[in-house]
């Protein structure tokens, strides 16, 4: 993908057979404790990934539902959404949608408040995934709430909203102190290695300046 702080300029299509071959190489060779899935782009790639997860009985899968870039450019084709719903969601332990992504997955309006956010989170859970971490950065409140939905119940996390343009890679307009790539990647790091998902989500909040538009999140703020 050719992308900068202004938007997505081009996406290069990887052949699904090659994606499948990459997964075969890894899954047939080493033990995989946790898998994090990011951008999938097209229907046949979604199908290739879903087939390999089933073939190798992959556990602890985190699906970062990458569907839109910060600039609004689509990163998942419309035809791939239904395939993702039917073939991939039932195989994953956790999905981490923001509000526009949740709306797209449900073919529903964008949630405007926490009540609607909770309704959509539970609707996504009913699609068969193990848990849903709904990210509320697109709400307009002073706090930026996240909701974790599991078969055992719901849990709310929140922090003061940080109003900044430096949100590239975060999955939200204005953020607390975590979000998208940070969110999805560290969900795998913290949330599927013998810790429950609530502890994993708390770990991300502890974890989490260049270009001319949406700058990237500053991972090293604690040092400089």
UniProtKB/TrEMBL annotation:
- Please state the pathway this protein functions in, per its UniProt record: Cofactor biosynthesis; thiamine diphosphate biosynthesis
**Ranges where the Pyridoxamine kinase/Phosphomethylpyrimidine kinase domain occurs:** 2-172
Q: What is its EC number?
A: 2.7.1.49
- Could you provide one GO biological process annotation from this protein's UniProt record? thiamine diphosphate biosynthetic process
Q: Which keywords has UniProt assigned to this entry?
A: Kinase, Transferase
Gene Ontology cellular component terms for the protein in this record: cytosol
Query: Top-level EC class, please?
Result: transferase
Q: Which InterPro entries match?
A: HMP/HMP-P_kinase_dom, PM/HMP-P_kinase-1, Ribokinase-like
Output the Pfam families linked to this UniProt entry.
Phos_pyr_kin (PF08543)
Is Hydrolase given among the entry's keywords? no
- Record GO terms (molecular function): hydroxymethylpyrimidine kinase activity; phosphomethylpyrimidine kinase activity
Q: Does the keyword Cell division apply?
A: no
Name of the featured protein: hydroxymethylpyrimidine kinase
Source organism per entry reads Enterobacter cloacae
> Lineage of this protein's species?
Bacteria, Pseudomonadati, Pseudomonadota, Gammaproteobacteria, Enterobacterales
